[in-house]
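job 3f2a | input accepted
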Amino acid sequence: MGDSGRSAVDTTVPHPARRYNYWLGGKDNFAADRESADAIEAAFPHIRTAAVENRRFLQRAVRLLSREHGIRQFLDIGTGLPTADNTHEVAQGIAPESRVVYVDNDPLVLTHARALLTSDPRGRTAYIPADLREPEQILGHPDLTATLDLREPVAVMLIAVLHFVHDDEQANAAIATLMRAVPPGSFLALTHATADFLPPGTAEALAGGKVKGASSFEGRSGARIARFLDDNGLEQLEPGLTVVSEWRPDPGTTPPPAAHVSVYGAVARKR
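job 3f2a | predicted structure (271 res):
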């Protein structure tokens, strides 16, 4: 996350969104992204499973919030490059009037989003170049205020982005700022990489700067992640904070082992 997405695309430095795109089998990535992604995959061979399960969590969470809780507004921060079943596609497939604001700090992401993420005419989508670490800029952006009514419930989506904010206080402050801006009945959906289920050698390799690009994310424990929800008075929906593949899996599916996913997920309500 650098300068709130205002700079040109730097193809020589790996970017999380493009690396994630590569793990999902996409083509919108560069040599630096692939080199970093391959190095991480060599240390953690299940990374592609983790990426897929993280994406599936996003889709299940949006379906739940749309169908069961009547949410019609979504703020998706750390959007990533467009792929199948993006937030607005899932939401508008249930409620065509749904409105979604996408936020990312990679200019390539925003370019692709504007070209590919086409809203149902009964709803609306907008795209903001900004950084989670500067939540006031997100909330004050004219495209957000023109798209979302912050007097009505909003689902704030922090999918695989919070672990790029290394400082716990800064991460907690970002969540606090975002959730203060939305009314009771709003939700926070988050996923976060963890080392809780990794063998010690793998965890040390990823966290110790030995693997190119791995030190860009902070693999927090479940207890540290849960504090972000508890400190902000958010009420977790069942089953609470758990491995994303085990969070309300689709009927008839068998979740992969937690050690093959190593990503926590939760959906929590602002009371």
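job 3f2a | Residues 245 and 256 are 7 Å apart (CA to CA).
job 3f2a | closed
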